[in-house]
Predict the 3D structure of the following.
Amino acid sequence: NLGLHFSERVVRTLVSWILTCAFLFCGFALIFYAQREQERVIESYPVLDCTPYQVNPFFNSSEVKYSNGTRVPNVAGSNVLTPQAIIEDLKPNFYNSTEGNTGILGCFCYALLDGSATGCNE
C-alpha cells in the first residue's frame, strides 16, 4: 500500500466497502427469505398433537395391535393412522374430501422414526 497514490487507496477502500455491504445485504436478504419460506411451510403443514393417534404402517391391515397387546379392528375414521389415511389427507381433492393437510403426516413419520408405530418393534 505504500507505493499507491492516495486516490488509488481510496478507490480500493471504497470498492472493498461496497462489496462488503453488498455481501451483507445479500446475506440478510437470504435469511429473511428463508424465514418467510419457513413460515409458509409451517402454515401449509400444521403441527398436530400426536398423542391421540396410533400408527399402523401397513396397507390393508384389518386390525391394529396396541402396545399393551390388545387388538382392535382398523376402522376408517378412527384414531389409527395408516398409509391410506395419510395419502387421503395429503390429496383431499382427489378423494372428494372437504378436509386435508391436517398434519397427520408428521405424526405418522415421528411414530415410524421413534419406533412407536404398531408392528415396528415386533
User: Anything to note?
Assistant: DSSP finds three helices and four strands in the chain. The longest strand covers residues 63-65. The two ends are 73 Å apart (CA to CA).
